[in-house]
Design goal:
By secondary structure, the protein is of the alpha/beta class. The protein is built from six helices and five strands; from the N terminus they run H-E-E-E-H-E-H-E-H-H-H. The chain has helices spanning 6-14, 78-95, 112-131, 141-148, 156-167, 175-190; strands at 36-42, 47-55, 61-70, 100-104, 135-139. Helix 2 runs parallel beside helix 3 and helix 5 (156-167) crosses helix 6. Keywords: Cytoplasm, DNA damage, DNA recombination, DNA repair, DNA-binding, Endonuclease, Hydrolase, Magnesium, Metal-binding, Nuclease.
Length: 196
């Protein structure tokens, strides 16, 4: 039998198929499936992606909500944008029984001002989670792409297509929403959670 590549192994694991343990297998394969509801967040000042996914027994995963909080108007100041991010995350946390909040870490950027803005957006989301006493986990983009697509250099479009397949969702999510869903899945597949 031909040896499966990492992407096929992830696909089988997510589908609930048995995956044989072989040397070099990512640590996430050895853990049992996560059961609970995760809010995934892809923070950005003008387009924050949000996705709520419920992970059930036998690998069942259901997208309960996804959206992109768009704040494109130049009339919306940075403080207002941050307040809106915090308010939207609080609204989701008050609507759903969220167990974990998972965020994508800020990517490396050469522009200091861009890094500052992304950090502020991330802080607004984390502050909302802290206000509701939720545990927060952060994952670098490379790890998210590796966990979901099997390729740390995958494009945003590849991530979106994979998320659609994994969720069995008919329509493609917007890119920020699929990134948020991918962060939630990264925690479910590879995160530091207890083995049930």
């Amino acid at each position: 039998m031909a040896r499966k590549n990492v992407r096929q192994l992830w696909k089988d694991k997510v589908a609930g198929k048995p995956v044989s343990t072989v040397s070099g297998l990512p640590a996430g394969f050895i853990k049992r499936k996560y059961v609970g509801t995760i809010l995934g967040i892809d923070p950005s000042l003008r387009g924050t992606g949000l996705a709520v996914i419920e992970f059930g027994e036998k690998g069942r995963q259901i997208l309960l909500r996804s959206e992109t909080l768009k704040q494109r108007s130049s009339k919306i100041s940075m403080p207002q944008c941050l307040g809106n991010i915090c308010a939207r995350v609080l609204e989701i946390l008050d609507t759903y029984e969220i167990d974990i909040v998972a965020l994508e870490q800020t990517i490396y950027v050469q522009n200091f001002q861009t890094a500052q803005i992304l950090g502020a957006a991330r802080g607004a989301a984390i502050a909302a989670a802290a206000m509701r006493g939720k545990e927060v986990f952060e994952y670098p983009p490379l790890r998210v792409k590796q966990a979901v697509v099997g390729n740390g250099r995958a494009s945003k479009e590849q991530v979106a297509k994979t998320i659609r397949t994994l969720l069995g969702h008919g329509a493609m999510l917007e890119l920020d929403e699929s990134d948020a869903a991918a962060v939630a899945m990264t925690h479910a597949y590879t995160g530091a959670h207890e083995v049930s």
